[in-house]
Specification:
Elements: H1 3-36, E1 40-46, H2 51-67, E2 71-77, H3 82-92, E3 99-103, H4 107-112, H5 120-123, H6 135-139, E4 142-143, E5 146-147, E6 150-154, E7 157-162, H7 163-168, H8 180-190, E8 192-193, E9 199-204, H9 212-219, H10 237-254, H11 256-263, E10 279-285, H12 289-295, E11 301-304, E12 317-318, E13 321-325, H13 333-343, H14 346-355, E14 359-360, H15 363-366, H16 369-372, H17 375-382, E15 387-388, H18 399-411, H19 417-435
Parallel strand pairs: 1-2, 1-3, 9-10, 12-15
Antiparallel strand pairs: 3-13, 4-5, 6-13, 6-14, 7-10, 7-11, 8-9
Length: 436
C-alpha cells in the first residue's frame, strides 16, 4: 500500500472518530435537554468532581430527577474553594446558582451579608423538620433565631491506633488511652529514637491532623474561644493547662527542630504518618480509615474516642461540616427547597453515608443499620454525643487567626503559654468591642 493511500485511510479513520465523538456529545446534550424539557432547571454547585464523592452526588441528583416530573437538577462542580468565590461573585451579580454546598461554620456570616436566603418560611411549613438533624448541626445554621441553611454533613475526631505496635511495645492492643495522662504514658512506650536522638517513630504527634485549639476545646469541656453572645473564653484555666501540656510534653521534650525535621515528611497517601508507620496513634476525622484501606490494607488498627483531659471531663471533639443553601436571588427558590429536602432526607443521606462515609446530618440516616454496619462509621456516630461545632460569630469571624498567631509564638519560645493566652484574650476582646 502506497503512502498516499495509507494517509487517506488514516485521515478517514480520524474523521470517523471525530464524527462519532461529536455525534455522541450531541446525543448526550440532546438526552439532557429532553430530560429537562418542560421542567424547572436548577444548578447545584459543589466541588465533588471525581471519585466516590462525584459518584454519590451524581446518583443522588439522578435519583431526584427521576423521582418527579417538575424539576431537573444539573450538577456543576468547581475546584475546592473556587466554588465559594464563584458563588459569591454570581450572587453579587444577581445570577447565583440555585443550590450551593457551603461551609457550616460561616452560615451566620452569609446570612448577615444577605448572601444566603432565609429558609425559615419553608421550614415552618414542615412540622418537625429540624428534629430530623443533630441539634448542634441545626443550631449552626441559625442566625437571629431563623435558619439560613440545612445541615448536610459533619465530621468528628477519633483516635486511631496501631494494634501491632501496641503489642510490640508490650501494651494491651484492646486498651487505648482514655485520658491525656494515659495518652502520654503510652506514647512514650511507642516512641522510637535512634542512637543520635533522631526520631524514628512517635507514639503520637498531636498536631499532625489537628490544631492545638481542637485539643484545647477537648480540655475545656467543649467550650470554644469566643461565644456567640460575645463572651471571650480564650484564656481559661483549662485552655492554659492544655497549652502548657503541649509545650512541655511535645515541643520541649522532643525539641522543635527535631520535630520539624521528622514531620516535614508527613503528607497524604503513602506518606500519611499513620499509614506509613511514622506515628503509632493519630487523632483524625473518621474518614481517615479510607487512607488506611487504600494505602495500608493490612494495617491492624483500633479506634477510640479522643482521650479525656482529666478523668470525667468528657471526650470532647470539634466538628465541622457542610450545608445546603439557596443563595439570595435564586430564580426558583421553591424548586430549590424541594431538592434540598431530598438531598438532606433519609434516602439520599443514607446513600452518602454508605458510599462516601462522611458523617451525615440526618439522624435517621446516620443511625441506620446500613450506615452503622461499618465499624468506623458506627464509632463516629457514637462520637456525635461529644461533638461540638463552633460557628464564627458575625462580629468576629477571624478571631481564631489572632489566637493561632499567638500560639505559634509559644512553640518558638517567643512567648510563654501564660503570655500568649493573655495577649490573645485581649486581642479578641478588642476585636469584639470594635465590631459588636
Amino acid at each position: 500500500m502506497n503512502g498516499k493511500k495509507t494517509g487517506m485511510i488514516v485521515w478517514l479513520c480520524i474523521l470517523f472518530m471525530i464524527t462519532t465523538l461529536l455525534t455522541g456529545c450531541a446525543k448526550t446534550e440532546n438526552n439532557a435537554a429532553e430530560s429537562a424539557a418542560g421542567k424547572i432547571t436548577l444548578e447545584l454547585w459543589d466541588w465533588w468532581g471525581s471519585g466516590a464523592y462525584n459518584e454519590a452526588i451524581e446518583k443522588i441528583v439522578s435519583n431526584f430527577n427521576t423521582s418527579q416530573d417538575e424539576i431537573f437538577v444539573k450538577h456543576i462542580n468547581y475546584p475546592w474553594g473556587d466554588v465559594w468565590t464563584k458563588a459569591l461573585a454570581a450572587t453579587a451579580a444577581g445570577n447565583p446558582p440555585d443550590i450551593v454546598i457551603q461551609d457550616i461554620m460561616t452560615v451566620p456570616t452569609r446570612a448577615e451579608a444577605k448572601q444566603a436566603m432565609n429558609l425559615q418560611p419553608y421550614i415552618d411549613k414542615e412540622p418537625g423538620f429540624k428534629d430530623k438533624f443533630y441539634p448542634q448541626l441545626w443550631d449552626a445554621t441559625v442566625y437571629k433565631g431563623e435558619s439560613y441553611a440545612v445541615p448536610f454533613t459533619t465530621d468528628t475526631r477519633l483516635l486511631f491506633y496501631d494494634k501491632d505496635m501496641f503489642e510490640e511495645a508490650g501494651l494491651d492492643p484492646e486498651s487505648p488511652p482514655t485520658t491525656w495522662e494515659e495518652l502520654l504514658q503510652i506514647a512514650r512506650k511507642l516512641d522510637k529514637v535512634d542512637e543520635n536522638g533522631n526520631i524514628e517513630r512517635l507514639g503520637i504527634y498531636p498536631l499532625s491532623h489537628m490544631d492545638w485549639n481542637d485539643w484545647a476545646l477537648n480540655a475545656d469541656g467543649g467550650q470554644s474561644f469566643l461565644q456567640m453572645d460575645g463572651t471571650v473564653t480564650t484564656n481559661t484555666p483549662n485552655k492554659l493547662e492544655s497549652l502548657k501540656w503541649m509545650k512541655e510534653n511535645i515541643f520541649d521534650y522532643y525539641g522543635k527542630r527535631k520535630l520539624d525535621t521528622f514531620t516535614s515528611e508527613f503528607g497524604n497517601g503513602m506518606t500519611n504518618p499513620f499509614v506509613s508507620g511514622k506515628v503509632a496513634m493519630i487523632a483524625q476525622t473518621a474518614t481517615e480509615f479510607t487512607k488506611v484501606r487504600d494505602f495500608a490494607p493490612d494495617k491492624n488498627y483500633g479506634l477510640a474516642f479522643l482521650p479525656e483531659f482529666k478523668k470525667g471531663s468528657g471526650h470532647w471533639s470539634w466538628g465541622g461540616g457542610f450545608t445546603a443553601e439557596i443563595p439570595v436571588g435564586a430564580k426558583h427558590p421553591d424548586a430549590s427547597w424541594e431538592f434540598i429536602k431530598y438531598l438532606t432526607g433519609t434516602e439520599a443521606q443514607t446513600l452518602w453515608a454508605t458510599e462516601v462515609y462522611d458523617s451525615v446530618a440526618n439522624i435517621e440516616a446516620a443511625e441506620s443499620a446500613a450506615a452503622l454496619a461499618h465499624p468506623v462509621y458506627k464509632k463516629a456516630t457514637e462520637n456525635m454525643e461529644w461533638t461540638v461545632l463552633t460557628p464564627y460569630p458575625v462580629f468576629a469571624p477571624s478571631h481564631m487567626d489572632l489566637v493561632k498567631a499567638k500560639i505559634e509564638e509559644v512553640w518558638i519560645d517567643k512567648l510563654t503559654p501564660e503570655q500568649a493566652l493573655s495577649e490573645a484574650q485581649k486581642l479578641v476582646e478588642e476585636l469584639v468591642e470594635r465590631n459588636k
